[in-house]
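About this split. The held-out portion is used to measure sequence recovery: a designer receives only the structure tokens and must propose an amino acid at every position. Recovery is the fraction of positions where the proposal matches the reference. Here is one held-out target exactly as it appears in the evaluation file.
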């Protein structure tokens, strides 16, 4: 919000906004939408870049579609439908991208969390308390809530990134997790929210980023077995459909969607029992988003328990077998796929 205010205060005649709502709450997004409409009435021109199609249709007078670095089409927004827009963006029909997911959830617990409470180091931290839930093998568990509700902090506690009290069990056995290394040893992987700051080393290659989580597998005698590392990386690149000229290409030069696939691949290569994925499709195009959703479904089919945290309510509703709603550091609702609607999730997140 400060960044947006700074741009507006410069008395600019043209303002470019690139994914401005990526980290905003629902209320903040509505405030921004109204502000943009007022700026337009004052004669200020806005270039609005977004992967959230509902925002594009609400705001745009004209829509330009880019694909692979080239302009595909520019049309008046009134003449464009969601289906035609998606087709131009990815050269595929909407029905091909969003096939109804098949549930692979079982009744077998893979992760159990009881009375997890953040060990307060600052007064603000004490709000995350008494969190209890169970994740089942093959289940995709969605975590919803407003920005700042504590969704990410809860998962960081499970992964050993934040000190906490309470009990954690994996495969029914109590475990002690004091740091991320302990979490990895117990079969937990974590695709972090900010892939560029926490998930990747941008100056390193696809291969080097891929093997960061399991480098010891390729160096049993302290010497790196490059041929083995290369073959494993190429296999995952093929399986996940990563678009790269070579596995030696630096990840900084990949698209956001392909960067995200590399982040997921490095954790999947560990064969985790539990995979936590925070904002899995933030800042990637609709085609890559559908591919990531399909990948999560395939991982669940292998028996991995998946936890998906997302600010995109439609995404949570689309991929989850069950949804937990976080409000002010506590679980404030649980909805099955059949029960879950946007209205019910929002009510639990704000009530």
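Reference sequence for scoring:
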């Amino acid at each position: 919000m400060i960044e947006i205010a700074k741009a507006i205060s410069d008395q600019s005649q043209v303002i470019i906004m690139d994914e401005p709502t990526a980290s905003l709450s629902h209320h903040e997004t509505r405030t921004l939408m109204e502000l943009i409409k007022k700026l337009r009435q004052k004669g200020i021109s806005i270039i609005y870049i977004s992967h959230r199609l509902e925002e594009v249709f609400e705001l745009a007078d004209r829509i330009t579609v880019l694909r692979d670095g080239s302009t595909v089409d520019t049309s008046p927004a009134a003449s464009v439908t969601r289906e035609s827009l998606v087709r131009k963006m990815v050269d595929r029909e909407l029905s091909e991208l969003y096939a109804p997911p098949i549930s692979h959830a079982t009744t077998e617990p893979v992760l159990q969390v009881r009375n997890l409470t953040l060990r307060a180091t600052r007064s603000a931290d004490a709000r995350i308390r008494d969190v209890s839930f169970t994740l089942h093998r093959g289940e995709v568990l969605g975590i919803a809530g407003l920005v700042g509700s504590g969704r990410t902090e809860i998962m960081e506690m499970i992964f050993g990134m934040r000190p906490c009290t309470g009990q954690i069990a994996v495969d029914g056995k109590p475990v002690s997790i004091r740091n991320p290394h302990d979490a990895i040893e117990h079969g937990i992987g974590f695709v972090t929210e900010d892939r560029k700051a926490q998930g990747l080393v941008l100056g390193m290659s696809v291969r080097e980023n891929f093997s960061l989580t399991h480098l010891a597998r390729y160096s049993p005698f302290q010497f790196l077995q490059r041929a083995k590392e290369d073959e494993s990386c190429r296999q995952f690149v093929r399986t996940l459909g990563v678009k790269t000229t070579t596995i030696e290409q630096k990840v900084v030069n990949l698209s956001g969607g392909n960067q995200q696939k590399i982040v997921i691949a490095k954790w999947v290569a560990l064969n985790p029992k539990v995979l936590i994925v925070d904002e899995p499709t933030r800042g990637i195009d609709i085609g890559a988003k559908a591919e990531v959703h399909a990948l999560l479904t395939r991982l669940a089919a292998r028996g991995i328990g998946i936890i998906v945290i997302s600010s995109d309510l439609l995404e949570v509703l689309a991929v989850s077998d069950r949804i937990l709603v976080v409000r002010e550091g506590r679980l404030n609702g649980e909805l099955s796929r059949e029960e879950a609607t946007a209205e019910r999730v929002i009510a639990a997140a704000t009530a």
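Annotator remark: The chain has a mean pLDDT of 88.
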